[in-house]
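Box S2. Input/output pair 1.
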Amino acid sequence: MRHPLLALLCSTTIAAAASAQTSTLPPLPAPIGVPRPGPVTDAPYAPQPILPGGVVVPLYPPGSSFLNARRVREAEVYNVSQTVPGRINSIVNIHNPSIEFHPVERYLNTGTTVILVAGGGHNTLNVGSEAADFVPFFYQYGVNTVILRNRLRRDGYSAETDAVYDAQQAIRVVRAYAKQWNLDPNRIGIIGFSAGAELSAPSALAFDEFDRKNAGASDPFAGVSARPDFVGIIYPGPTPFSVRNPTGPSTSWARNPSPPPIPRNAPPAFMATAGSGDRIHALWAMDYAYAMLDAGVPNVEIHVYGNGRHPGDSLSDGGRMNGGLSAANTRPMSTWPARFIDWLRDLGFLQKPGVETKAARDVAAFANQPH
């Protein structure tokens, strides 16, 4: 056992050496390549990529009736990480909504594309943990990614209409550019997180209506379908199959007694949520799953994990949040992305592009059944 005095001398010597070394080190350079919002000009704001190499496409042409002409020139506002230089945690003040496309290498490319719709309670857009982090994740499976920047309730927009329109328009824009981007137009899906799932869920139901409303000769995407080929609904907010109980507390919701019609070609759906630790979001996920399963829609999968919390909730047990790709979380909830990949593979979305998927065959067979 080392003598206490010797230990004290050693620690003092080490501290002194470290101090001397630090004082002689050259200063560290500032981080470079940090993404910044675009400037304010007389033209509509030009959204900038939040990840290197992103191809940014505004959803609507200048002068579109979808845009707020008074605010479309305002710059987006980034909330950046204080510890990770260049990481954009969230964005607000989105008035010229857009998509940001990230391709995979040709030798990996399955032609499948996932449109990522981040959450944030319609108050902010959590593009870090629920969008940007998934770009390299899906890349390794040959899946192309698109980050959606949709309009927010906090900025004066309706989540139920404006933001949902942004998600539906994003599907059309990606499909319209499928050939230029080497994508399979029959493998374009959308995955929403929390408030983002409030956009992905209705996008899987009301695509025909959106297409009919936007079929005019002045629409550059007229004739391009807004139907997603698959949908992800991750720890969702209320879906079209959920309604607030008018006689109960604000957290009291019930299954919608007058649910919207389910199209015969409704896309396959994947849901994942924590259970008792995130009960209300689990119930909303189950409302959607129940409606799809009750209607007989094929290839519906739901994972309700026993433990976990909603992203942003405080954890009294000292655990970690399970939002996005939280691999540091040791709970099973953190494994849901692997289950999503299993589901994509099972439905044929990870095979070579141009080959009809199992999902497409099953949708066609179901749509052709007498009802």
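Box S3. Input/output pair 2.
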Amino acid sequence: MVNVTNISTKTIAIATVVILIGIMLFSGFTYQPQLDNATIIFKEEPLEKNTELQLHDGEQYVYSYVFNNTPINMTYQISKGNNCTIIRFVENLNRSDICLDKWGVEKSGSNVSFGDGSVLLFKPWMLALHEGWHWNTSMYMQVDNTEYYMIDAHYRVMRIDNYRGRESFVVEIKTDDAPAEYQWVDKERRVLLKIINDGYMLEMVDGLVFSQDS
């Protein structure tokens, strides 16, 4: 049975930095319906996770990318919440914190993304990765109890790679109307190390120990 999750469009406006670089083509937040009664619905294939959330209180992760020849950082702080783990996007003061259970899911229940599309550090599907893994999801817009199909996304682990001394899953994310996106996900900690897409690249610069750091 597919997992269906709803996220109100009032909560899916993207942070300016994410709009500028076009990150996360299928996060569900590249679409911003103007109808107040519209809702984004994700329909997911079953997802079997093989590890729990590996984020810990007091950690901080920093990512860097270049826009118009200007380096820009994105910082995520981890803290302990009320029976959950909190992710805070430091540079985005207008966003609410994301509160995740031990399986990396927030209140929406989605494994695809969160109500805040600017959280790139972690996605719940990362806890299911293994060699040969593949997964499919679909996105719909619901208006007045009618669902309108928008797009499918196809995820697969291409290989295990060595990224700056750390074992990582290389995940390909494909949709029908855009170039494929490639994400390097740390095999141990299950967090994003790098994204490469058509026209941009983002990578972690602080938060884990890399080979050149020693």
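Caption for Box S3: The helical segments are 16-21. The chain has one domain: 3-208.
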